[in-house]
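tool_call: predict_structure(chain=1)
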Amino acid sequence: MRAWAAPFHRPLPGRGLPVRLHDTASDSVRLAAKGPTASLYVCGITPYDATHLGHAATYVAFDVLVRAWRDAGQEVRYVQNVTDIDDPLLERAASVGIDWAELAATQVQLFRDDMAWLGVIPPDKYVSAVDTIPRITELIGRLKDRSAVYDVDGDLYFSVRSDPRFGEISHLDAATMRTLFAERGGDPDRPGKQDPLDCLVWRLERPGEPSWPSPYGAGRPGWHIECTAIVLDHLDTGGGIDVQGGGNDLIFPHHEMCASEAHVATGRWPFAHTYTHAGMVAYQGAKMSKSLGNLVFAATLRTAGHDPGVVRLALYGHHYRSCWEWTDTMLDEASATLDRWRAAVAAPAGPDAAPVLDEVRRCLANDLDVPGAVAAVDTWMRRTLADGGPDPAAPALMADVVDTLLGIGLRQ
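tool_result:
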């Protein structure tokens, strides 16, 4: 599947620092990638209401990670999926009277347009769940060979207890797992299951639903097995990937299930060395969600003529792991900041910018402390506007720092 055009990259003098990220499984901040190549998988959208600002905050956060890794001299192998077949997509298509494939294609293109507008670096591979079905059925076969898949009325389920490490990412008790599983697409109360938490890997064809041929009968894949198959096929070279990322609503069940399926299928641990999760964005007193309808869409801001740098600055007001609430005044505040920064980099000279570059790099290496990086940049911008400075090369360097590391274009 095609992704979107990559933004122009301006190299910076020197080299960034090794990035350390918070790992959900160990609840610690650790080196995110040890080798010359960093591998990243970020769970993508289910294309039926793209792209609200909760999505944007997550993908912009991992965009900064990619930028920081590249600045540190590491090659980045980045894969993202799109869940273009799943119950929520089919339900939305039915409710609005449109073919599910047409709805998915329209929303995927909208997401591409939004990501390009926001200056997000595209993944190296942007992978469709539908295109992955042959790999998914192969993976199910590997799990069956290990007695980790069983049949319930023609549907196939993965036995989570086949992985002795199940639960080591989320560290939740059984009752909480069951509650979240029910809320997030699971079916803990289905009769015939060996464990309430066992997850669907292949759904036998139902009347009126799309289906694909498989050794297990015509049907379609479950949700979690999709990402497991994509990572194993496109990213994992045998030692586990460096980072699996997404919103913190994916910790359980999605990332827990993906890891367990991979552990059992490969006989290797870990699936990912670091599990990194972005916080949720609320609006009007509740988490932005499609079910509540309290969504602010990137496309709405884009078509209204807002500068993408303003949106990124508004998202940068909070650390990526925090949960926070969007307010409409954030755009005005961010717009004022962007205007100040553009005025400062247009000045004939300014204070030495090298220490600011160093501080931005330190902040990003420290679990993507983007608010700290923004504060360091803003201090320089204010000093420049107030007092000028002796260095005629400093404004151009600051413009490059903001563009390359924060994804905000200041040159007009």
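agent: The longest strand covers residues 75-82. Proceeding to next step.
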